[in-house]
Structures are given as C-alpha cells and as structure tokens.
C-alpha cells in the first residue's frame, strides 16, 4: 500500500497514538502523520503510507481549516477545555453581533501569536509542554501566521451571559494555534477566554468528508477494500505549482539532476512538482541556493515511471 489515507482523528488520542494503532491495523511500519493535533481535537489527519511519507511535510506546510468554539469568561493553563482555570471574570456586559464581527475582522490577515506553554514548539532543544509539566515558565518565541478568513457560525444579534460561547470557522496558514486565537478573541473583548471545542475540517486537499474512522479502516482492511480509500501521493501535492516534463528530462530528474527553471516558474519561491505528461509526480524541486536560474531536487519521489 502506498498513498494518503485521510483519518478522522478521534477525541482523546494523540496523533502519535493514531499512527501506532494504524501500524497494527495495516501491519506495516512506514506510516507517518502530517501535523500534530491535540488529544482534545478531532478531524482531518492525513496519514502517509509507504513512499507517500516523503510528501508528509508538504501536507503539513499547506493551509488548514477548522471549526471551533470559544468560551469567554475564563482562561486555562492549556488554552483549551482540558486545562486548569487560570483566570476567571464574569461577563457583566452584552456584546452585539457587530462587536463580535469586528473582533474577528481585526484578527484576520497576518497576526503575531505566542505559542502556548502546552505546545510542541522547541525552546533550547526541549518542547514547551515538557517545561510546562515541570512548572517551568520560559520565554516563548512569537511567530507571524496568516488568518485567511474567520466566519461567525452563530446567528444571534446579541451575546449575553456570565460565560459567552460562540462558534467560528477559520482558514489559516501552518503554525497557527487556534487555542491562542480563541484567547486573543477574548482579549479583544476584554475578558479571559479559551477554546472549548475544535474540529479540523481541512488539511491541504483533504476534507472532513474524505476521512475514515479507525474502526472503518479496520473493517475495510479486513474486507480487503481499503485500497479504494487511499489517495495517490499526487493529491497531497495538488496545491503546489507543477512543471510537466518530457521523457528525456524525466530520466535526468530521476537521477537528481540540476535543471534550468522555466521562465513561467522563475517567480515561484517555494517547491515545484515535476511531473510526467500523465500527471505522475516524479520529484519536488526548489530554487538552487547558490546558482541563479537553476533548481535542484528537494525530493525524488519515484526512480521509475509507473504504468
């Protein structure tokens, strides 16, 4: 088996737990996930199988979409519902729909986030959650992320209550912490807040409706029909620019040759997929760091053309 298997990650399991279980179900070791989801988060977790593990990072680097719920009124150690309460402040005012929409608009575009202490970001070679579990507070590096859109999934005109909750849909770049985004929503409204629920609805080209549960995967494996649910690795690269090449150039590509960048791709800064006339991905190239106008292979995906 080779390709991408979109998993509907269940609540209560880490991404690593899911990979461990799938290795047992599929009876193979070469399996990897494409970006950590917190245990409390459910949704789209594309799993790379076999040679497709080579493209895992390109799914991880692609945009994501989520549907979540923010609770305004108290914050937690983990910035989500699993943590202990840090600060609590009764909401003693109402907010209009326009005020909520204004906050969402303010947080759209490029924003700066500080990763939560309970996160996998490394500081001095150690993950932040390891410091957090020891009760050690360290300085966290802020990062710029892109929020492409935030939509309010609530039709109320006025929001009232000691704790105010509302749902939202967000489309964002890699590295975005939706937990932190929920906290930022609360800060804009003048109250502590946390993310009380989250589902990832999209990762790169994969949507919620494409996903199978662990139980469904196990059943299909037993029936011998799982291959029908596995996507080719090209699906994972669908968001990247393509360069179709002829058979002569394909031989050079399979041998890792440095090539001239075609004029129409000179302005592309990121990875470029080199593919056959039949749209089979052979390699991923990137601009050569020392030689202007040339590109070199970042990954050779196939050494032979498959028919």
Automatic annotation (TrEMBL):
Pfam families per UniProt: TruB_C_2, TruB_N
Organism: Cytobacillus eiseniae
Role description: Responsible for synthesis of pseudouridine from uracil-55 in the psi GC loop of transfer RNAs.
Keyword Cell division appears in the UniProt entry: no
Family: Belongs to the pseudouridine synthase TruB family. Type 1 subfamily.
Keywords associated with the record: Isomerase, tRNA processing
Active-site residues, record numbering mapped to chain: 38
The protein's Enzyme Commission number: 5.4.99.25
Catalysed reactions, semicolon-separated: uridine(55) in tRNA = pseudouridine(55) in tRNA
Chain ranges of the tRNA pseudouridylate synthase B C-terminal domain: 179-237
Name of the top EC class for this enzyme: isomerase
Protein name: tRNA pseudouridine synthase B
């Amino acid at each position: 088996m080779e390709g991408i298997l979109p998993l509907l990650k269940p609540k209560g399991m880490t991404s690593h737990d899911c990979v461990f279980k799938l290795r047992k179900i599929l009876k193979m070791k070469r399996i990897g996930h494409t970006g950590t989801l917190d245990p409390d988060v459910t949704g789209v977790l594309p799993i790379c199988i076999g040679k497709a593990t080579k493209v895992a990072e390109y799914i991880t680097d692609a945009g994501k979409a989520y549907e979540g719920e923010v609770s305004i009124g108290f914050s937690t150690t983990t910035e989500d519902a699993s943590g202990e309460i840090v600060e609590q402040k009764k909401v003693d005012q109402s907010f209009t729909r326009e005020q909520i929409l204004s906050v969402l608009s303010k947080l759209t575009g490029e924003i700066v986030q500080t990763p939560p202490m309970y996160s996998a970001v490394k500081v001095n070679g150690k993950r932040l959650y390891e410091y957090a579990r020891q009760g050690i507070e360290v300085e966290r590096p802020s990062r710029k992320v892109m929020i492409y859109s935030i939509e309010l999934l609530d039709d109320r005109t006025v929001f009232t209550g000691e704790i105010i909750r509302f749902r939202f849909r967000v489309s964002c770049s890699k590295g975005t912490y939706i937990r932190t985004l929920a906290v930022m929503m609360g800060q804009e409204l003048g109250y502590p807040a946390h993310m009380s629920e989250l589902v990832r609805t999209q990762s790169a080209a994969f949507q919620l409706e494409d996903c199978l549960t662990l139980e469904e995967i196990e059943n299909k494996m037993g029936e011998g029909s799982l291959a029908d649910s596995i996507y080719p690795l090209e699906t994972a690269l669908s968001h990247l620019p393509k360069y179709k090449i002829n058979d002569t150039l394909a031989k050079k590509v399979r041998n890792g040759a440095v090539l001239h960048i075609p004029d129409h791709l000179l302005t592309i800064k990121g990875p470029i997929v080199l593919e056959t006339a039949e749209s089979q991905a052979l390699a991923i190239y990137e601009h050569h760091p020392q030689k202007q106008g040339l590109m070199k292979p970042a990954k050779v995906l196939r050494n032979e053309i498959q028919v």
